[in-house]
Amino acid sequence: MARMIRPLANVHEQLRRLPGIGSKTALRLAYHIIDMPEEEVRRLAETLLEAKRQIRLCDICYNLTDAETCEVCGNAGRDHSVVCVVEQPQDVMAMERSRGYNGVYHVLHGVLSPLDGIGPDNLRVKELLRRLQGDTVREVIIATNSDVEGEATAAYLAQLLKPVGIVISRIAHGLPVGGDLEYADELTLSRALENRHRM
């Protein structure tokens, strides 16, 4: 069996490091990139480098931006008294797509994971506490994922923020719209029942 030539193997290896990209997809992308005209490959490489150089963290919420503060933090029309705490910048985009939230955000850049050596000092927790020192914020919504790490992070933050004296809430978890009960796992059903509301 013929082995992959070194330059192609190098491209394959770099692409495989990206999250969600398996070996087959990385190989398909590597072949596609090699088949692209050199000018398109150069444009792709330059675009990646330019984005890496220009994108920084917002001074207030730690979301990605190309300015000192992101568009959300700089928008006077947003409710700056409500802060939604999320794990990653992509979670901000997901919340914004819902069009149901008009507050601001705080991005932790991870979750507590003792097995991976990630503790509170590895997250933007101190920065969150600093934001809450004034009297501007009246509610913090914890919107971490409902996996083990997300729940542990939510519980830690709730305990840490209680003495601050503001409202601490957690996003509801349950059945997705259009989901069938028969296919839902026990935890999802349990959460759906816990988060039920009167009609």
From TrEMBL:
InterPro entries: DNA_Rcmb_RecR, Rcmb_RecR, Rcmb_RecR_Znf, TOPRIM_dom, TOPRIM_RecR. GO terms for biological process: DNA recombination; DNA repair. Coiled coil: none annotated. Keywords: DNA damage, DNA recombination, DNA repair, Metal-binding, Zinc, Zinc-finger. The keyword DNA damage applies. A zinc finger (C4-type) spans 58-73. Gene3D superfamilies: 3.30.60.80, 3.40.1360.10, 6.10.250.240, RecR Domain 1. It comes from the Bacteria. Residues 81-176 form the Toprim domain. GO terms for molecular function: DNA binding; zinc ion binding. Belongs to the RecR family. May play a role in DNA repair. It seems to be involved in an RecBC-independent recombinational process of DNA repair. It may act with RecF and RecO. This is Recombination protein RecR. It comes from Phascolarctobacterium faecium.
